[in-house]
Automatic annotation (TrEMBL):
This is Thioredoxin peroxidase. Thiol-specific peroxidase that catalyzes the reduction of hydrogen peroxide and organic hydroperoxides to water and alcohols, respectively. Plays a role in cell protection against oxidative stress by detoxifying peroxides. The active site is at 51 (cysteine sulfenic acid (-soh) intermediate). It is found in: Cytoplasm. One of its GO terms (biological process) is cell redox homeostasis. The keyword Oxidoreductase applies. SUPFAM superfamilies: Thioredoxin-like.
Amino acid sequence: MSILVGKKAPDFTAPAVLADGQIVDSFNLAEAIKGKYAIVFFYPLDFTFVCPSEIIAMSHRMEKFREMGVEVVGVSIDSHFTHNAWRNTPVEDGGIGPVEYTLAGDMSHAIAQAYGIESDGGDSYYPAGVAMRASFVIDQKGVVRSQIVNDEPIGRNMDELVRIVDALQFFEENGQVCPAGWNKGDKGMVNTPEGVASYLSESSKNL
């Protein structure tokens, strides 16, 4: 698995289903996220188990992400036609419904490989060849600032992705770093010895 934090997010062009349900043959990541923050999140397969809960949870947070200027793109090795079929399957029947962000098809596995999260089977619970449960937070310059990968049985907390974007934007706006457990509205920390001492003297008991 590759570590992409601090590096440019690999660009890709792939067939996709857009948020409005339009099917396109050539969705380009760099074009879609230019000048925006972005989350690219991978999941193993359509019509499976943990995956729909994550995909729906992400869709429920899209109003918040839009307010923050974040473009969201989901990716699996399924085709764009399978994505579309899953979107058109009601939630009560195991589908995901009309989720409010793009789902890209990685049938060649090239995107998962570029991001270093294609499973080789190994000792994880993933079957070989699928994309791992991985999330990448990307800044407005196209640089990866956070990378989280869970094993197959462990669903992600999409509120943590909101928190990470909040923290990134806070740092960019204020120049202060975000200590453990930081949430929007909390104090930041000045990244000097004096700043650390000041923060810990006030807040260490609450960590």
